[in-house]
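RECORD TYPE: protein structure
NAME: NAD(P)-dependent dehydrogenase (Short-subunit alcohol dehydrogenase family)
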Amino acid sequence: MDDVRIALVTGANKGIGFETARGLAAAGLTVLLGARDEARGAAASGEIGAVPVRLDVTDAASVAAAVTRVTDEFGRLDVLVNNAGVLTGWGRPADLTAADLRTSYEVNVFGVVTVTRAFLPLLRRSAGGRIVNVSSGLGSLTLLAAPDAGIPVMSYSSAKAALNGVTLAYAADLRDTPVTVVSVDPGLCATDLNHRTGTRTAADGAAIVVRAALGDSTGRFIGESGEVPW
Ligand SMILES: NC(=O)c1ccc[n+]([C@@H]2O[C@H](COP(=O)([O-])OP(=O)(O)OC[C@H]3O[C@@H](n4cnc5c(N)ncnc54)[C@H](OP(=O)(O)O)[C@@H]3O)[C@@H](O)[C@H]2O)c1
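PREDICTED:
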């Protein structure tokens, strides 16, 4: 088997995903840079020597085409970083409708399930497959339940909490296989997602994701200072 590990990062044309792709490429992995827009994916890949893969996590046909391509060209996958995410559906929780939450769940939860299920056969061909779900401290039920917690963006927090549930479910199901599954909290980073209001850089956040992807950190919900409470 070829020694160079192969990693796929979804939503990697910008932000934390792009910096994660850059970090994994710098660590010597072959990086497949997932992007839903072909031109943006090609431009970002060119910057870091990655392989662009068109991938819209909400579009099953695009995910299936990506799996076919990775199967034909690489034959396996070692690392899957489910990074693609959106922050949509603002408003006070009591005012929101189910429709206001739908886009957030489509990308942040169902997209991860679609991509993970589709790529799992390729991850099972790895000597030690790794799935990293880019979650958020805002999805920590423990922190949301704290007496001094503020009013969350329900569409986002509850989707990331659901994503953490997805992480734990996969981890349990794959317990007896070489495939490991973790959630990561990159911390509040200045990206387009939050109109650049974060206090850290995308590269700061990506460093945590990269460590988790390489298996260099311990725990199952990994943040800057160790384990984040579920
Ligand atoms: N920034 C933070 O403070 C922070 C904190 C905690 C967690 N996170 C998480 O970190 C991840 C990356 O966020 P970011 O801050 O880097 O945001 P960002 O700069 O807005 O990047 C989001 C990425 O996701 C992609 N994307 C959105 N919908 C997609 C879809 N349907 N299919 C494929 N790709 C899609 C975007 O593609 P386009 O360019 O085509 O829109 C973009 O590449 C997200 O999961 C986010 O929830 C961020």
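COMMENT: The pocket of NAP is lined by residues 10-11, 13-17, 36-37, 40, 55-58, 83-86, 107, 111, 134, 136, 186, 188-189, 191-194, 198, 202 (CB under 6 Å).
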